[in-house]
Structures are given as structure tokens and as C-alpha cells.
């Protein structure tokens, strides 16, 4: 039998290596990134970095999202029953490079999605951040399945999902984005049979609904 790599072995034994889990504050590092549960101020910062590609692909303006959070103190973590959000920062500079979310939709499955800021794309940051968020979802929050959906013509997104091991699954081929744009949709899943809940403080979004 092929030997498991060191990361896989560590994930199996201890969950996500190096993860700091304190209440809603969760922080984990990869070679170049620090990924943590986003706070209001992080999403406000991300909104300032939004470009047209993010707005178009997500079908919503991050500035509008940040505007809706304006009433909350800047250090409130973005973690609700419907959605948990992470930001990824470059460790060497503190620069914000990506925003990823775990969220629940009507199907009651846990979805993952996100965006990398324009100046940081195609440097492997998207993959690095998504690997950490998937590991957290499976090995810390205990979710066996993570679902993703992307526009069929979004090659970057398809390649991004494939790069961390998402595989195609059947699903509704049409999705309407928040701005009303109907898109041809591909569905993906990431399955971890060794998923296990280790977190003592956070519930995965939708967990109460999905696994009562
Ligand atoms: C999709 C997105 C998150 C990818 O992030 P990224 O940091 O650029 O991706 P990475 O550099 O980690 O690359 C991951 C894989 O995707 C491929 N890729 C990334 N951008 C690509 C592009 N524009 N065209 C073709 N392939 C691309 C890389 O080559 C790599 O593939 P490999 O593992 O086979 O070498 C980023 O392009 C983005 O934020 N786009 C705008 C918003 C968006 O589309 N979000 C997703 C909505 S579902």
C-alpha cells in the first residue's frame, strides 16, 4: 500500500495541524498564508479590493455585503447559522488575498466558495486557502461532504476546485445569481470519509439543520 503523505497522516490523527481554535477565533497557517475566521473589518477591507471579475462571478457587490455589516462592531466574527467566512492573508506581508465562505442553501448541504483578489490570482493562493478551509470543514467541523457550484464557463473556478480534489456531481444545471444573471452551473463535491468533529466551540453552518 502506498504510504500516506505527512499532511494526510497528521490530519487523520490530530485534525488540522497547527489550528488555533479559541471560541469563534480560528486561525491556521499554510506555507504562505494565514487563514482565519473573518471579522467585520476584514470583509470591509476585502470589499475595497473587489474587482469587476469578483462582482460578476459572485453576482453581488462585496461593497453591498460590507455595507450591510456597517452596524456591527468591526471585530465581530462572521459566523452565523447560515454562513461562516474566512480570510486568507499573506504571512510575510499581512496582505489580504482571499475570502472564502462555508454556507448553507436550501438543499441543506454545506457549500464552499470564494474569491482571490485580482493582484494575487494564479499564484497558487486560491488552492492553498481552499485546502485549509476544506481541511477545517472536514477534520475540525466534522463535515463529510462539501459542495461547490460554479459557472460552466468559469475555467479558473473549475480548475481551482479540481486542484484541491473536488469531483463533479449531478445538480441543477441552472442557477440564478443574486443580481438576476442566470448561469449554466456545474456542481462539485469534496468528500472526506475520515471527517470528524473536533471543534468544541463552532458549529458548521447549517449543522443544526443538517444533523439535528
Ligand atoms: C477562481 C479563483 C478563486 C482561483 O484562485 P487562484 O488563486 O487564481 O487559483 P490558483 O493560482 O490557486 O490556481 C488553482 C488552479 O486553477 C488554475 N487557474 C487559476 N486561474 C486560472 C485561469 N484564469 N485560467 C485557467 N486556469 C486557471 C491554476 O492553473 C491551477 O491549476 P493547476 O492546479 O492545475 O495548476 C480566482 O480566479 C478568482 O477569485 N476568480 C474571480 C472570482 C471567482 O470566479 N470565484 C469563484 C466563483 S465560484
What does this entry look like structurally?
This protein has one domain (6-210): Aminopeptidase. Helix content is 29%, strand content 28%. The chain is built from seven helices and ten strands. It has helices at 6-14, 40-49, 52-58, 62-68, 125-140, 155-163, 207-210; strands at 20-22, 25-29, 33-37, 83-90, 96-104, 110-116, 145-151, 167-169, 174-176, 182-191. Helix 2 runs antiparallel to helix 4 (62-68). Mean pLDDT is 89; it is low at 208-212. The chain binds coenzyme A (COA). Coenzyme A binds at residues 53-54, 57, 113, 115-116, 121-127, 150, 154-157, 159-160, 163. It holds the Pfam family Acetyltransf_3. GO terms for molecular function: acyltransferase activity, transferring groups other than amino-acyl groups. InterPro entries: Acyl_CoA_acyltransferase (IPR016181), GNAT_dom (IPR000182).
CATH superfamily grouping: Gcn5-related N-acetyltransferase (GNAT)
CATH topology: Aminopeptidase
Helix content: 25-40%
Bound ligands, each once: coenzyme A
Q: What is the H/E string?
A: HEEEHHHEEEHEHEEEH
Shape: globular
In total, the number of domains comes to: 1
Please outline the major beta sheet.
6 strands, antiparallel
* First-last Cα distance: 38 Å
pLDDT averaged over residues: 89
The neighbouring-strand order within the major sheet is 1-2-3-4-5-6
- Helix/strand-derived category reads alpha+beta
Low-confidence stretches: 208-212
- Total strand count, please? 10
CATH class: Alpha Beta
CATH architecture: 3-Layer(aba) Sandwich
Please work out how many helical segments DSSP would assign: 7
CA radius of gyration is 16 Å
User: Strand share of the residues?
Assistant: 25-35%
Pfam family, one: Acetyltransf_3
Organism: Micromonospora globispora
GO molecular function: acyltransferase activity, transferring groups other than amino-acyl groups
Domain N-acetyltransferase: 33-193
Amino acid at each position: 500500500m502506498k504510504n500516506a503523505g505527512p499532511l494526510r497522516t497528521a490530519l487523520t490523527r490530530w485534525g488540522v495541524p497547527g489550528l488555533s481554535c479559541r471560541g469563534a477565533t480560528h486561525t491556521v497557517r499554510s506555507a504562505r498564508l494565514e487563514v482565519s475566521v473573518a471579522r467585520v473589518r476584514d470583509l470591509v477591507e476585502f470589499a475595497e479590493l473587489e474587482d469587476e471579475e469578483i462582482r460578476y462571478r459572485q453576482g453581488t457587490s462585496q461593497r453591498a455585503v460590507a455595507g450591510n455589516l456597517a452596524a456591527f462592531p468591526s471585530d465581530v466574527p462572521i459566523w452565523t447559522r447560515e454562513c461562516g467566512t474566512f480570510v486568507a492573508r499573506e504571512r510575510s506581508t499581512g496582505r489580504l488575498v482571499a475570502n472564502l465562505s462555508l454556507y448553507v442553501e436550501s438543499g441543506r448541504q454545506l457549500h464552499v466558495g470564494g474569491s482571490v483578489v485580482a493582484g494575487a490570482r494564479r499564484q497558487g493562493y486560491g488552492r492553498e486557502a481552499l485546502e485549509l478551509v476544506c481541511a477545517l470543514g472536514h477534520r475540525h467541523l466534522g463535515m463529510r461532504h462539501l459542495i461547490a457550484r460554479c459557472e460552466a464557463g468559469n475555467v479558473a473556478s473549475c480548475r481551482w476546485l479540481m486542484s484541491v480534489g473536488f469531483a463533479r456531481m449531478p445538480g441543477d444545471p441552472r442557477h440564478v445569481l443574486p443580481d438576476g444573471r442566470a448561469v449554466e452551473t456545474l456542481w462539485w463535491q469534496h468528500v472526506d470519509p475520515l471527517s470528524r468533529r473536533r471543534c468544541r466551540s463552532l458549529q458548521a453552518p447549517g449543522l443544526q439543520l443538517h444533523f439535528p
